[in-house]
Amino acid sequence: MRTASSVDIAAAPRAIYDMVEDIGRWPKLLPHYRFVEVLREAPDGRIAVMGARRGSIPVRWTAAERLFPNVPRIEFTHVAGWTKGMEVAWRFEAVAAGTRVTIDHELDFRRVPLIGDWIARKVIGDFFIHSIANATLARFKQLMESAA
Questions:
Q1: CATH number at 2-147
Q2: CA distance linking residue 14 with residue 112, whole number of Å
């Protein structure tokens, strides 16, 4: 299953990257994030337990974050939780209006035999992942454009 969410933000790619890359700050910036507990910090990334809400439903996962500031690009691999094995990439592409920020999610649900492709796409992909990603992008857009 693959999903992609994107938004155009009136700001430079690197400025957005600089706001987004420190996931430890996300609960202060994103109202739908309940917590981020950084377990390990390194110059090129972090490992963190993360919790957000999809409406009133709490979700939780552990992810390894990898930072590529010169590209700029941020990648995550979910290492625990229902989305274990999911690969996530944040891409920052310069466009006429500023930057198109895209979050790509890729998750293979064949490893969980009871979850069919339709359930994976509609419930986990659309209802949870896509919804949380869209809320995250909308909030970062609001923060970046109100700071300008």
A1: 3.30.530.20
A2: 38
Query: Going by C-beta distance under 8 Å and a sequence separation of 6 or more, which residues neighbour residue 100?
Result: 6, 7, 8, 9, 91, 92, 93
Concatenated DSSP letters for the chain? -EEEEEEEESS-HHHHHHHHS-GGGHHHH-TTEEEEEEEEEETTEEEEEEEEEETTEEEEEEEEEEEETTTTEEEEEEEESTTTT-EEEEEEEEETTEEEEEEEEE--GGGSTTS-HHHIIIIIIIIIIIHHHHHHHHHHHHHHHHH-
d(CA 116, CA 27): 32
**What predicted TM-score, i.e. pTM, was given to this entire model?**
0.89
For position 116, what pLDDT does the model report? Answer: 60
Averaged over successive runs of 10 residues, the pLDDT of the chain (148 residues) comes to 91 96 97 96 96 89 97 96 89 96 84 59 65 93 90
pLDDT confidence of residue 91: 98
